[in-house]
Structure formats: C-alpha cells, structure tokens
Design a protein that fits this description.
Length: 180
Amino acid sequence: VFILAGILSFFILEKFLYWHHHHAEHEHEAAHGFTYLNMIGDAIHNFLDGAVIAVSFMNSTALGITATIAIIAHEIPQEIADFSILIYGGFSRAKALVYNFLTALTAFIGALAAYFFSSAIGNSSIFLTSLAAGGFIYIAGTDLIPEIHKEKDLKKSLVQLVLLVLGILLIWIVGRIFRH
C-alpha cells in the first residue's frame, strides 16, 4: 500500500511539475520533470540512510560501523547514477553536482532526526522506505525504461538487457544473503 502511495504521489508530483513547467514565465530551463522526482526520491532515500546509521550506532558501535560501510558501499554507485540522471535530464554538470550534494545532506538530517526522535519513529521508517521505493519505481517505469527503449543499436540494447538482468540478480543475491 505504501509503495503504491509512493507511485501515486510521484505521479501527482510529476503532473504538477509538468504543469508548472509549461506555465512558467521562464521557459529556458530544459530539465525534465523526472530529474526533480529523482531528487525528491534520493532525498528521502538519503534521509533514511542517515536514520539507519544513527539508529545502528545507538544499538551498538559494531552494528553502526557495519551499517555505515554497507550504506557507503551502495551510496557510491547510487549517487553516480543520480548524477548521471540529472545530467541526462538536462542539468549542467555543475548544477547536477550541487543538487546531488544537497540531496546527500539529507542523510545528516535523517541521522539527527533519528537521534532526537528515536522513541517516536517506531515503524514510520517502513512507510518512508516504501514511499521512496514507490517513487523510484515510478521514475524507472515512466521515464528511465522508456528512454532505454529508444536505443535502436542491437549491441547497445543487449548490453542494457544484460545490465538490467545483472542488477536484478544482484538484488536477489543480496536479499538471500541478508534475509530479515
């Protein structure tokens, strides 16, 4: 239900962004709406990462270090991908770098929020994680996968397919190794 809420929320956000973009006085900005949606999803994601790190350290130093290493390991490729999405969506390299950095700062906000409101957080992280996941699913389904379909070169299309399958396989393997 929360994933569907994320998908619906991002649909509404994208509709508003397109409406706002088409009714703005300054039509010179060429960035696609999905770039802003990606930043919103990334900000939520980073906020949650910060919260996970803080809560992990509150439980034990060893767990905190482990969580931090795991989050850093997934953040490096994820932030490179987010930067690439912003560039592809029409941002300049400098603007993409600044906005990507600003969304990364939400991890510190998440850590502080988790530290100061740890007793009140409870299961709200499930809602926020699902909302972010729904947002990323929406972006992939409505913007990124359709862009991949525009590729007509057979070799590049096969590379895209192989990378997609490898990504799914990696997620499956990690899920099997780190079962809850």
